Amino acid sequence: MQHLIRECFQKEGYVFATRAAEIARAHGHDRPARLASNENPEGPSPEAVRRAIAALGTVNRYPDEKNREFTDALRAYHGDYRFAASVGMDGIIETVIRTLINDGDEVVVSTPTYSFYGIAVRAQGGVPASVARKADWSVDMDTFIRACEGKKLAFLCSPNNPTGTVTPAADVAAILEAIDGILFLDAAYIDFCDEDYRPLMHRYDNLIIGRTMSKAFSLAGLRIGYAFVPAWYEPYYMTAATPFTLNSVSQAAGAGALADPAHIDPIIRNVVIWRTRFVDECPYPVAPSGGNFVLVDVAPATAETVVEQLAARGVIVRSCTSFPDLGEHYIRVSIGEEWENERFLQEISRL
């Protein structure tokens, strides 16, 4: 029956770090350092937990289809913007593609970057068109803008996963000025750097900014994604969106986390401290990063070899071989708990 499956799903999908975890367990590491998934090692705000527990008593009813509790909290936190919400930013990405892309439409993607953009585009019948970044991982502005000519949609991630590169807001504005289609700016890691793209929403009606509660706000397990959207686009998004995507518990927890912004301040400070230590103390070159992770060049070794060696020593990191246009010798290392970070520096220095 395999012939019934669409061709785009017969190939490898999103790559998880499960193999490294299996290697660690095989070597007797019941509590390895988990530094592969860009998770936040700190727990969520107590207010988020309190509201989530309270919301459990209401789950016999469908959640508010307009996510009003959560979007009201977003406006209180960010200001007067229009928002869409979904199950993780992946849900936002899929719905945006659904509203715009027909079979055969090309979608521009700045690479190397998060592989799900290409997966979601192909699932909708579109064709991902990769535009490689420069050697320093900055966006090749002229090439990217030329590639966007006649295209409905383009994806740009900043801080970029997995390189950590931050694209200046002025460069994003220059792209928006030059293109006719929509730019989806994935800003999942923006809380960990000083750049702010939100003012661009007041100037451009072809910008969507994707955000998440999974990183700085420690709610990865509840899968809460949202986006700043132009006013003209909001009703079309709602028409295309899957009904009741964001459950009641997630909405309540997200609103609670946003009501306690001070909770993330020490988390962000800790990430900045450890990013600096990784750059200074790792024996391999580490790229500058604006996220809660760093990209490490382990050449002349391959990423797969280093991932396996570290896993055997109880440290799980991410091989970046599945990221388009990156190469075979990069690993991505998340900022974890202090003992996890120390173990990574210790074990990678022994390789």
Describe what you observe in this structure.
This protein is α/β, with parallel strands linked by helices and 351 residues long. The chain is 36% helix and 15% strand. The protein contains twelve helices and twelve strands. The strands form three sheets. The protein has a seven-stranded mixed beta sheet with strand order 2-8-7-6-5-3-4, with helices on both faces. A three-stranded antiparallel beta sheet has the order 9-12-11, with helices on one face. The chain is globular. It starts with 17 loop residues before the first helix and ends with a helix.
CATH homology group of the largest domain: Type I PLP-dependent aspartate aminotransferase-like (Major domain)
- Tell me the number of strands: 12
Q: What amount of the residues lies in strands?
A: 15-25%
Radius of gyration: 20 Å
Please give the CATH architecture of the largest domain: 3-Layer(aba) Sandwich
- How far do the termini sit from each other? 46 Å
H-E string: HEHHEHEHEHEHEEEHHHEHEEEH
Task: Indicate the CATH topology of the largest domain.
Answer: Aspartate Aminotransferase, domain 2
Secondary structure class reads alpha/beta
Tell me, what is the CATH class of the largest domain?
Alpha Beta
Helix share, percent: 25-40%
Strand order of the largest sheet: 2-8-7-6-5-3-4
Low-confidence runs (pLDDT<50, min 5 residues)? none
Number of helices, counting only DSSP H or I runs of 4 residues or more: 12
Mean of the pLDDT scores?
A: 94
Q: Overall 3D geometry? A: globular
Largest sheet entry: 7 strands, mixed
Please give the domain count: 2
